[in-house]
Task: inverse folding
């Protein structure tokens, strides 16, 4: 639609420059002036044959009309106003659309556009609320469930990109990732002063992708961060206009990075061989491609249904039992709040995701069968720790698919009655009777509850800090 508005403005510009009225130009090209008005206002798309006749009558060519640059400053303001008034933020106000007629002065038009810009800016700030984030995240998770967590277009893009740098087998090297960036005109630069709220920063003007120091132990995350930055460019992402758009972009770049680190053809070949041996194990998949356990588990959710003909679920759960990430298409009933969101909800104490924390040997995966109201599930769980807390990563399948997995011989089995609160959420009646009213506890306050995301062009990233960082790193090059 925005291209049509620009096209219409350019036609009007040339028509006015030629001293022609709508009716005169319409008669010259064989259409009514009212139809030509719709085209000039961006409300109707002309056929290429008609566009050629218009260009001829105006003494120019089709390429000049299709130029995406506004013909003048006034037209640029009118185009921007049209875009701003089409936004959901403006439409939600229920106000009439302002049509920039000739009687509207440039000064008045500039004022109206400025007010709409501020409205749009404030709307972008508002999207960073926890409520909006949870709602958008839930909608995205539900959408990906309908796709079995599989995005074939990004799979192809990743395979083509990996193939273009000559990578054919094994773990993707840092050198290959650097070559990918170079093919897009970017250099990978490791710095120690990234904005605290940014994982990476891309300088579009100077062709640099800034990443954390290369000395990070293991360095697995650096490949992924670089690939995510590369994905933004390959996927043609623009500044997110909503929190949902931000989350969609983040999902797409994460998917691309994983599909490069664990390419489709190699991964499916590896996993099908493991399935044939009845020996699928996330730890083997992880080690074969040199990635983290979590990355391998999530990647398995991308490929299992589309290429291995099985349904499954994934969970990342904190030491307190709260869900950080979750996916399922196998019927496992995730804990949900009234909005349908699962992030932050507490999983059953009987699930493998929490039982694994009590496992003595945490260097190997923990296997368990769990009987639930929705059937029996087999789970493989690996625990880990961060500087802040411990967590668990779980991949699970319905009992019928457990035959394909390592650890299926386990005798560990629990029963979960959740969401029945008597299962594990309520204390036993005898203990509750003994201690009710006889104890007092001071709860921990999670600081992030009181800390809204910084408001900026990219949710969670401080614009001032970002731009000052770019300025400080660009200055030496510019001065040189």
Result:
């Amino acid at each position: 639609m925005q291209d049509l508005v620009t096209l219409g403005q350019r036609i009007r510009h040339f028509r006015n420059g030629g001293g022609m009225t709508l009716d005169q130009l319409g008669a010259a090209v064989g259409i009514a002036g009212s139809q030509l008005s719709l085209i000039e206002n961006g409300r109707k798309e002309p056929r290429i044959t008609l566009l050629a006749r218009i260009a001829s009558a105006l003494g120019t060519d089709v390429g000049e009309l299709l130029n995406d640059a506004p013909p003048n400053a006034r037209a640029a303001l009118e185009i921007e106003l049209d875009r701003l008034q089409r936004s959901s933020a403006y439409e939600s106000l229920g106000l009439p659309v302002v049509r920039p007629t000739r009687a509207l002065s440039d000064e008045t038009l500039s004022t109206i556009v400025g007010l709409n810009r501020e409205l749009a800016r404030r709307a972008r700030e508002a999207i960073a609320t926890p409520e909006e984030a949870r709602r958008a995240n839930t909608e995205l998770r539900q959408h990906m469930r309908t796709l079995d967590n599989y995005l074939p277009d990004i799979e192809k893009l990743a395979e083509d990109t990996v193939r273009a740098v000559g990578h054919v087998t094994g773990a993707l090297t840092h050198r290959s990732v650097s070559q990918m960036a170079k093919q897009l005109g970017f250099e990978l630069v490791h710095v120690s002063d990234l904005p605290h709220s940014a994982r990476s920063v891309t300088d579009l003007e100077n062709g640099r992708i800034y990443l954390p120091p290369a000395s990070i132990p293991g360095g697995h995350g650096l490949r992924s961060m670089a690939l995510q930055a590369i994905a933004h460019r390959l996927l043609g992402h623009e500044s997110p206009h909503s929190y949902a758009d931000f989350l969609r972009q983040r999902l797409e770049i994460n998917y691309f990075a994983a599909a490069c680190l664990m390419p489709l053809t190699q991964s499916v070949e590896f996993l099908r061989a493991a399935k044939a041996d009845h020996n699928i194990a996330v730890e083997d998949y992880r080690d074969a491609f040199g990635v983290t356990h979590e990355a391998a588990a999530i990647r398995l959710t991308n490929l299992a249904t589309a290429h291995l003909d099985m349904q499954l679920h994934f969970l990342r759960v904190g030491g307190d039992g709260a869900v950080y990430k979750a996916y399922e298409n196998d019927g496992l009933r995730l804990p949900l709040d009234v909005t349908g969101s699962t992030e932050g909800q507490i999983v059953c104490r009987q699930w493998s995701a929490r039982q694994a924390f009590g496992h003595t040997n945490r260097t190997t995966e923990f296997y368990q069968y769990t009987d639930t109201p929705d059937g029996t599930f087999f789970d493989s769980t690996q625990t880990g720790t961060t500087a802040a807390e411990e967590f668990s990563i779980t991949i699970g399948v319905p009992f019928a698919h457990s035959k394909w997995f390592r650890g299926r011989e386990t005798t560990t089995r629990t029963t979960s009655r959740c969401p029945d609160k008597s299962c594990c959420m309520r204390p036993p009646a005898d203990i509750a009777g003994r201690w009710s009213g006889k104890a007092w506890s001071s709860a921990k306050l999670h600081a992030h509850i009181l800390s809204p995301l910084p408001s900026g062009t990219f949710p969670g990233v401080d614009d001032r800090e970002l731009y000052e960082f770019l300025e400080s790193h660009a200055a030496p090059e510019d001065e040189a």
Observations:
- The two ends are 43 Å apart (CA to CA).
